[in-house]
Structure formats: structure tokens, C-alpha cells
């Protein structure tokens, strides 16, 4: 006998000659003072990986679940009657030694076999089992148990249909595992249940089921298909043994458990006839969601209004449509038909569009006035005393009957607020008034119409007008940014410098009529002290600026950082500083080259030490003439901090250095706090966002010529405030612009050609 697996005191053995499985279960010697912990340990010692002993072991699981309901502690001794019941049950497991199970579930090797699964449930447990149906050489079908799985019912009370559905889910999961291990398609497995309700649920739409049922039906149908499920009678369902449980003596004689129902061993037609059963009507199934019907009234939308953004174009298109309708009506008698649009055609088109707008917004009022009744008391038109005119339009009754005004002014046509027709009329009048203000616009419209909330509509029209926004742009002013560290930290003058060019200047030599020469001025500004250094530059080339930079550093010392814009000469110098200059520009004027050379010689001479140099590396650096000019060496490292030394015992030069460092302390205390206050842009405005449409301010162009752009990227600063954005214009150019030179449009202009 070969031991297949061992778990605790239970051994699953295989006898090679008869090719059978046998169980060797031994009863523990310590049977005194049984506790819940010991009971659970004893039950788990029975090793049954394929579930052959499922109908017997489920009774032990149900027994343990009853102990859970009694809330007995793990190590508390059980009552005597409970111990006796358990000893009787567990002693019966020893008789399973006599049980022999054929290992071979397929009577013959080959692909001619079928897998059938069954599931069932009771109030205490539910389970699933699988059988292999195969044919021998004589064509006789045989059925053998393959595996099973059981679970106890949850402590929370559930209905039998819900438990049956849980058993069906367990069967679907078990079938998927077997199909994966046998390398077959799970959809070829035949699945059986004796619950007509479960079959009805599996063949109905899960959206109509309640949450518990819908979730499990969805899980089952993800693994299997609804046509795989069939109905089996309860007395022929082998899974019924799993849900109820049987004793060890009954298990040995349970033919249905080991071989399945009898029709599984007959021909294919016999078992297929078992599944031919009509399903329950869906309306009679339990766990259905109540169906709530709602009647939705879809408002008819005039598609013609969405095609036009100009009132005159919309009126012209409507006039042609009405003209075509008139032509169809007068098709038989073509006499008197005019083939072009007349003034009356435009008037009829305007009346038709306004009539449609009034029917959309004032349907109740229009019906009441048509029937000769008053408008409802809560109507917006109640104070206007409206009535229906001869053109079937709702007009104002008002109190101006005895005035000398025209009939249109006495009884203006009512326009609904927010309607597309009203907006187009306001835009039309706004343009013919040459973009007049809201007050002028409203006064002109009221000569013929009475718009509801007219002041709001007039202001909205003026604010949405791109031409008006261009004429009076309001640029965004984000809150002033935090000062960079070079502005607020003491440092040697011009150690951190900003540079830019001014000019050009036209220079002439003498009083003779000679051609003027263009010159520029390089402006160097110390970020800490605001000191300024000016240098002449003969051109905008990189080498010309490099010469000016050499002269500047020869007199002011080396800079740790230099800030500039993206001018080509600055970019070129940055590249040359990295690789250093190899060739000089032959176009630079000779006098300038001489001046640059003299400045560099001057820097070298001013960097000579005034005292002998020491060979000791720990000695301080020698004093140079540059110390008296800029407070430090032109070509050497800066001086150490002497502010903490006793000023009375310092030598002359160090005394001067200490005084200068005291000045920097005063600079930090007296000047630096003045930079704390923001002089302007003290409040944060709404920040730019990607997709905003803006007007780009250009210094040398009138506002009417300023371009439109769309924000493509934002570049927030260290404080999260957006002060620079990347724009896309109509010609697909990408520009970086500061926010202070942009004006956001309230709406995107219609027919805009900006790249999106």
C-alpha cells in the first residue's frame, strides 16, 4: 500500500494492484475534556482533498457551527451531552477504513467523455459535485464521482433560493478549476440544479434582479453560459446528499453518490431529455427589482437655430424656407408668385422665429391668451398685461394707450430671456449701434421689443462681445511673486547681476558729415544693491557683448550668476563661456578691442598682492589694490567673514573689511525689510487655465489688431501662481507670454480659427 498524503492522524492511501483509494483514520487517544479547539483540530485531521467524504464531513462542520451559535470559548470544556454526540460522530469515521474508491474515473482513455456537475442546498449547508461520464469499448456509458466541495450555510438566515444560488456559484467555480486542470473548455461541462428559480435567474437579465442575486448571477455567467444549466429532479440529484449529510454506513451504500443518477449511465438521449423543461415566467421570479416607469417629454428643438450665429442670416434662411413652402402651396397656380425675397418675406420670417421662441418659453401663457383667458398669477408676464396681436405674437398691453408713441412702442413684442432668438437680436442691434453700451442697446431694442430681464441681457451681450473686450481689455495681474534669493541675501556688489541692452544710439565722430555708427549700451544691474554699470557695445554680436562682459568683470570682479533674456547674443555668450572663445570676431572695432585689453590688464595689475606671499597654506590671502576698489579681489575668492571678530584688534585692511561687512548687516536690517511690502498686484486674480482664449497685448499695434490665442501650457512659479503661459495662435505658433500682457475673453468667439 502506498501512502498518497498524510494530514494529522488521517492517511489517504493508494493500493496499486486494485488501483483504489483507501482512508486510514485513527481515533486520538486523548478523548477527555474536549473543547471547541480540539473538535476543530480533530475534524481538520481528516484529509480529503477531492471531497469523497463530503457527505460525512459536512455533518461535523454543521456540528461545529452550532457550537459557534452557542458562543462557547475556544478552551472551555464542553457539556457532557455535546461531548458524547461528538464522540459518537467521530468514532463512526473509523469505519471509513473499509471504504474503497476506484482511482480511475474514466473507464477507457480517450477523448470520448463528458463532465456533469450537480449542486443543491438546504438551510444548513450547500455543495457541488462533478461526475465523469465515459464510454467503454462496447459503447456502454459509465459514470464515476470526480470531486466535490461543501460549505455550511451562513449564520445569517437566508432563503432557500438564495442558498441554491450560492450552491450554483460554488459548482461554477469548481467546474472552472477542473476545466483548467484537464485543459478543456469550461463551457463543455453540463451543470444541473433542482431549483427552477435559479434557472430562471440565470436566464433573466441581471439588471432586473436585486443586488445579492444580481452579483452572484453575474459571477456565474462570467464563468459559464446559461445554456449549460439544466434541471434535475430532487430525488435524482446526488448533491442533495451533500446538503443534508449522511452517516459513514450510509455513505458506503450510497450508489447515487458514487455513480450519479442512473440516466448518466444510459445513452445520451436519455439524459438530454431530463433538461427539457419550460422555465418559470420572469414575472413570477422572486428577488426582482420593482420596475419604475417614467414618462419623459422630449421638448422639440428647432435645429435651424443651431446652424446660424447671425440674426440677419437666420432671418434670410427662414424667409427662403417659408418661400419654398409658399411655392409648394401655389404650385398648381403659378401666377402671382415672386421668385425673390421681399420686405414682407423678411417680416414674416422674423415673426415666425419670434413666435417659435414664445411658444418654447411661454407655452402656458400662449395657450391661456389664445383661449381668451388671463395668464397664470405666477407668470413672468403678469405685470405686462399681455395679449395676442394680429400676427399671433404675444405683445405688451401696458398703460401707454393714450400716448403719441407708435403702435410698436405702445405694444412691443415680448422676448423670452435666455432664448437663442433673443440673444441673436441683441447681438444684431449691438453691432448696428457700432458696439454701443448696454444702456443704449436696451433703449434701442425697447423701441420694438420688450425683452424679459433686458438689462441683464444687454450687459451680457456687451461682455460677450470680442470687439468690445478688445477695445477695453482688462489684463490679469497675478499677485507679486516672491523675491529670488539674490535679491534678499547679502553679497559682494555685482556678484549676482542682471544684464540687458539699451539703444541703439547713432554716434558721429566730429562735425564732418560722416556716416553715423550704431552703438548700444550694456546695462549691468547688481541684484542686491541695485548698483548700475554701463558699458558701450558696438554691435549685437556675441563677441561684442563678450568684450563688454570682460571689461565689466575687469572692473567689478567676477560674477557668480548673470541673468538675461533669450537674446541671441546672450545665448551665444553663454555657449562661448562653456567652450571658451577660440576665435575673435574680426568685425569688432579696434578701439573697443584695445579698451577690453586694457581693462583686462588693469584687472591683472589690480590683483597683484601688496604684501609678500607666505608658503604656509593656513595664512590668509594677501591684500590687493582690488580690495580698495570693490572690497575684494578681482580674480581671487571672496574674503572670510570677519563680522564676529573684535574690531578693535584687527589690522588696517581687516578693519576696513569688518566695516564693510557691518555695512552689509545694516543693509540686511534697514534696506531688506522694505522689500517685504508688495507695491502693486497685492490681490490674487483668477489664474489662467489650459484652454482659455486670450487677447495678446502688442506694444506697437492698436488694440483692434491684437491677436487671439489659446493657452496651451501653464508655468506656475514656486508659489504655485501662474505668471507665464505658452500660447497657440491661429498660425500654430507657440509663444511664451507673461500673464500681465494677456486679457481673457469671457467666451470663445464664434467661428474662431484658433487651433484647438
Which stretches are low in confidence, meaning pLDDT under 50 for 5 or more residues running? Answer: 581-591
Q: What is the average of the pLDDT values?
A: 79
User: Structural class, from secondary structure content?
Assistant: alpha+beta
Largest sheet: 5 strands, mixed
Note the gap between the termini.
Answer: 80 Å
Word description of this protein:
It is a single chain. The protein is an alpha+beta fold and 756 residues long. Helices cover 35% and strands 17% of the residues. It is built from 24 helices and 22 strands. The strands form 6 sheets. Strands 7-6-5-8-9 form a 5-stranded mixed beta sheet. Strands 21-20-19-18-22 form a 5-stranded antiparallel beta sheet, with no helix packed on it. It is flat and about 130 Å long. Residues 581-591 have low confidence and may be disordered.
Amino acid at each position: 500500500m502506498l501512502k498518497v498524503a498524510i494530514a494529522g492522524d488521517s492517511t489517504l492511501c493508494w493500493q496499486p494492484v486494485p488501483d483504489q483509494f483507501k482512508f486510514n483514520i485513527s481515533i486520538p487517544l486523548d478523548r477527555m475534556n474536549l473543547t471547541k479547539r480540539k473538535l476543530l483540530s480533530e475534524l481538520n485531521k481528516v484529509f480529503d482533498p477531492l471531497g469523497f467524504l463530503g457527505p460525512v464531513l459536512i455533518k461535523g462542520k454543521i456540528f461545529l457551527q452550532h457550537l459557534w451559535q452557542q458562543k462557547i470559548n475556544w478552551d472551555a470544556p464542553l457539556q457532557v451531552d455535546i461531548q458524547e454526540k461528538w464522540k459518537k460522530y467521530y468514532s463512526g469515521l473509523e469505519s471509513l477504513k473499509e471504504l474503497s474508491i476506484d482511482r480511475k474515473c474514466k473507464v477507457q482513455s480517450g477523448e470520448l467523455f463528458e463532465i456533469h456537475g450537480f449542486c443543491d442546498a438546504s438551510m444548513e449547508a450547500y455543495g457541488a459535485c462533478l461526475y465523469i461520464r465515459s464510454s467503454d469499448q462496447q459503447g456502454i456509458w459509465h459514470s464515476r464521482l470526480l470531486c466535490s466541495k461543501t460549505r455550511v450555510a451562513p449564520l445569517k438566515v437566508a432563503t432557500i433560493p438564495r442558498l441554491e444560488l450560492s450552491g450554483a456559484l460554488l459548482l461554477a467555480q469548481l467546474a472552472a478549476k477542473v476545466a483548467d486542470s484537464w485543459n478543456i473548455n469550461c463551457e463543455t461541462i453540463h451543470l444541473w440544479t433542482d431549483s427552477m428559480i435559479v434557472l430562471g435567474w440565470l436566464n433573466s437579465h441581471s439588471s432586473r434582479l436585486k443586488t445579492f442575486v444580481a452579483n452572484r448571477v453575474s459571477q456565474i455567467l462570467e464563468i459559464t453560459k446559461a445554456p449549460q444549466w439544466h434541471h434535475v429532479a430532487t430525488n435524482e440529484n446526488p448533491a442533495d446528499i451533500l446538503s443534508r449529510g449522511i452517516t459513514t454506513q450510509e455513505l458506503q451504500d450510497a450508489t447515487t453518490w458514487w455513480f450519479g443518477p442512473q440516466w448518466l449511465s444510459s445513452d445520451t438521449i436519455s439524459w438530454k431529455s431530463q433538461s427539457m423543461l419550460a422555465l418559470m415566467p420572469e414575472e413570477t421570479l422572486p428577488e426582482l427589482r420593482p420596475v419604475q416607469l417614467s414618462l419623459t417629454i422630449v421638448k422639440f428643438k428647432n435645429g435651424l437655430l443651431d446652424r446660424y450665429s447671425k440674426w440677419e442670416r437666420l432671418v434670410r434662411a427662414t424667409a427662403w424656407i417659408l418661400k419654398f413652402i409658399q411655392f409648394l402651396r401655389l404650385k398648381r397656380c403659378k401666377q402671382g408668385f415672386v421668385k425673390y425675397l421681399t420686405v414682407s418675406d423678411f417680416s414674416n420670417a422674423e415673426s415666425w422665429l419670434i413666435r417659435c421662441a414664445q411658444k418654447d418659453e411661454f407655452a402656458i401663457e400662449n395657450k391661456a391668451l389664445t383661449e381668451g383667458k388671463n395668464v397664470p398669477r405666477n407668470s413672468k408676464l403678469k405685470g405686462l398685461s399681455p395679449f395676442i396681436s394680429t400676427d399671433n405674437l404675444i405683445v405688451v398691453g401696458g398703460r401707454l394707450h393714450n400716448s403719441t408713441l407708435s403702435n410698436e412702442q405702445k405694444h412691443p413684442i415680448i422676448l423670452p430671456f435666455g432664448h437663442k432668438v433673443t440673444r441673436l437680436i441683441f447681438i444684431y442691434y449691438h453691432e448696428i449701434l457700432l458696439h454701443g453700451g448696454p444702456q443704449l442697446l436696451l433703449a434701442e431694442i425697447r423701441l420694438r421689443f420688450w425683452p424679459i430681464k433686458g438689462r441683464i441681457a444687454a450687459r451680457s451681450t456687451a461682455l460677450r462681445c470680442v470687439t468690445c473686450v478688445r477695445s477695453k481689455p482688462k489684463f490679469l495681474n497675478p499677485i507679486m511673486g516672491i523675491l529670488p534669493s539674490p535679491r534678499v541675501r547679502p553679497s559682494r556688489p555685482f556678484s549676482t547681476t542682471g544684464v540687458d541692452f539699451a539703444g541703439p544710439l547713432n554716434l558721429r565722430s566730429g562735425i564732418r558729415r560722416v556716416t553715423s555708427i550704431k552703438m548700444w549700451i550694456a546695462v549691468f544691474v547688481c541684484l542686491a544693491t541695485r548698483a548700475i554699470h554701463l558699458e558701450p557695445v558696438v554691435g549685437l554680436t556675441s563677441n561684442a557683448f563678450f568684450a563688454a562682459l570682460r571689461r565689466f568683470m575687469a572692473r567689478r570682479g567676477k560674477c557668480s550668476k548673470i541673468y538675461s533674456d533669450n537674446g541671441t547674443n546672450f545665448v551665444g555668450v553663454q555657449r562661448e563661456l562653456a567652450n571658451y572663445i577660440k576665435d575673435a570676431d574680426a568685425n569688432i572695432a579696434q578701439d573697443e578691442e584695445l579698451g577690453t585689453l586694457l581693462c583686462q590688464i588693469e584687472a591683472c595689475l589690480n590683483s597683484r598682492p601688496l604684501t609678500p606671499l607666505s608658503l604656509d597654506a593656513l595664512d590668509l590671502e594677501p591684500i590687493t589694490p582690488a580690495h580698495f576698489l570693490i572690497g575684494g579681489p578681482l580674480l581671487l575668492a571672496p574674503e572670510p567673514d570677519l563680522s564676529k571678530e573684535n574690531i578693535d584688534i584687527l589690522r588696517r585692511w581687516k578693519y576696513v573689511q569688518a566695516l564693510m561687512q557691518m555695512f552689509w548687516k545694516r543693509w540686511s536690517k534697514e534696506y531688506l525689510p522694505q522689500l517685504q511690502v508688495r507695491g502693486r498686484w497685492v490681490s490674487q486674480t483668477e489664474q489662467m487655465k489650459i484652454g482659455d482664449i486670450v487677447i495678446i497685448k502688442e506694444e506697437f499695434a492698436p488694440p483692434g489688431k491684437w491677436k487671439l490665442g489659446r493657452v496651451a501650457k501653464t508655468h506656475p512659479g514656486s508659489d504655485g501662481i501662474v505668471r507665464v503661459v505658452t500660447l497657440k495662435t491661429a498660425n500654430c505658433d507657440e509663444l511664451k507670454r507673461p500673464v500681465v500682457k494677456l486679457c481673457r475673453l469671457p467666451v470663445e468667439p464664434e467661428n474662431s480659427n484658433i487651433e484647438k
